[in-house]
Amino acid sequence: MKVDFVKHSLDETLLKCPQCGFEHGMHIVSVSVLRGSDKTTVTSKGTSVTQEKNPTRGVIVFLGYHCEDGHAGEIFFKFHKGSVYVEHKSLPPPKDIDDIWRS
Ligand SMILES: [Zn+2]
């Protein structure tokens, strides 16, 4: 799994699917922030706060996505001593694409 981008224009880059590399079928389905044990998630249905074990001392930012080739997952960002670590976790594909901006 590789989180990567492709140049689109002078000022823009496109996020590639970490699983297949496709850059024109990516949909953001959620944004979450885990701070302490509170995980705040924003989806097209609204905002929720759930409890989750935090393996770090800091904050983790999650970006949930769905790819039109049937892939789904979370790209997440961890921070430690001035460095940002980017990781990826595959998830089962949802039945429907539910972009974060749809309601
Ligand atoms: Zn894909």
Structural class of the secondary structure composition?
A: mainly beta
Estimate the helix proportion, in percent: under 10%
Radius of gyration: 14 Å
**Unreliable stretches:** none
**Number of beta strands:** 8
Q: Can you count the helices?
A: 0
What sort of overall outline do the alpha carbons produce when their principal axes are compared? globular
Strand content: over 45%
List cofactors, ions and other ligands.
zinc ion
Widest beta sheet: strand line-up = 5-4-3-6-7-8
Would you kindly provide a written description of the structure presented here, covering whatever features stand out?
With about 100 residues, this protein is mainly β. It has a domain at about 25-90. The chain has strands spanning about 5, 15, 25-35, 40-45, 45-50, 60-65, 70-80, 85-90. The strands form two sheets. A six-stranded antiparallel β-sheet has the order 5-4-3-6-7-8, with no helix packed on it. A two-stranded antiparallel sheet has the order 1-2. The protein binds zinc ion. Zinc ion (ZN) binds near residues 19, 20, 67, 69 and 71.
Topology (elements, then pairings):
Blueprint: E1 5-7, E2 13-15, E3 26-35, E4 38-43, E5 46-51, E6 59-67, E7 72-80, E8 83-91
Antiparallel strand pairs: 1-2, 3-4, 3-6, 4-5, 6-7, 7-8
